[in-house]
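Worked example 2:
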Amino acid sequence: MFNKMFAPYLTLDAHIEAFQETKRGLTDKIITDPTLNKAAHEYIDAQTQFAKMLSHNFTDIAKYSMDSIASKWFPQKEEVVEAKTTRSKTATA
């Protein structure tokens, strides 16, 4: 139950969204001009997209690196599976 409820909040995207949402809230309190506020929100949205792009790139590179290292440290033996053909004694040709 704990995993299903809180796992989405433990991701990098969730932390980025929480931080950016805090910035949006502060911007709403500080900047009262609607035009400037809209521009500030668009800037924050651009920052959010950039931060998410960096976090996804980091995650992909980390996964690739760990897979590469693990395959060198723990090489997998290739198993050859031979097909067995069985014939019924009562089968007719």
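The radius of gyration is 27 Å. The mean pLDDT is 83.
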